[in-house]
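B., you asked whether I could sanity-check this one before it goes into the benchmark set. Here's the sequence:
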Amino acid sequence: MLKFVLIISFYSALCSAVPTNPIISKVEPGLRYQYAQDSDGNNHLVDLWMSINDLSEAARFFPEVSNVYHLFTRSNPTRSQPLLLNNVNMLQESNFDGSRRTIVLIHGWMNSGTSDFNMALIPVLLAAENVNVIVVDWSSGANSLNYRIVNWNSVTSGEAVAKFINFVNQWTGSNLSQYHIIGHGVGGHKAGVVGRNLNGQIGYITGLNPALIGWVNNIDRLSPSDSLYTEVIHTNYLTGYVEELGHVDFYPNGGISMPGCDSNECDHARSFFYFAESVTSGGFTGRECLNYYAAVLRMCDFLSGRLQMGGLTPKYGKTGVYYLETNGARPFSQG
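And here's what the prediction gave me:
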């Protein structure tokens, strides 16, 4: 009897010593808990270590079903037409025109289809050109306080967006070179995931202050090869990835903090406000820098290259890092 009790006690102690939610990976080097800021400027203390329970949570996200695509055109500039993957009737009854260019907007963490990012860009894009604008609402995967799961969801959701684009092209005759994908924050990296899953044949990707935390060692982060031309606008080093990510990387005001802003959230949002103004005005002339260190330090007077930031026309064949200065209020461009 004593032997039986000892055996039971041994196994009880062994079971209690095994973690109920074991850690399977560390998302980032350094501290396990760090503050991250969502696209609305709210700070959250996030856990950057991946656990078994995280995988269970991620498995409950089905982006092929939950992603909703909202189509805006000049025929319906304020009221969207929802589209769904593999729903041919919805697509054929919509105003989507396969002969036109298509701009896909991808929001970031704790945002949705009605985020400021989308509201700032939709009217500007439609005014500038007769295009299809598709807003990707992946809020069911983006609105978790579990930040590492949002990063994970951005990858699977990006894969679903790529399938959606293939579906649209199959039924409308569009081709990948007609697409321009614009992503903000986590959405900037997700734009790269979409392009990567379409063999880098998307015509143009714009990353607007792509997210930093969780992406330093992440193989799924945005890269130049994700599209035929990839451009990145860096506006805050705490919320955004400061190193080069595209064929061309712009660093307004050094990419650290923006004139007229008093918060990281304001800096983060400046990326899409600058891009919106670039579409309407064509301003923002960047000066070529040796590398991103020079851009951050604002030491870019030694090279003669000049390049316009943003806009709707991809700058095929252009590469490099560029610095420019902005005004503290609209118009932000200094020319």
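One thing to flag: The domain at 14-248+256-283 is CATH 3.40.50.1820 (Rossmann fold). Otherwise nothing jumped out at me.
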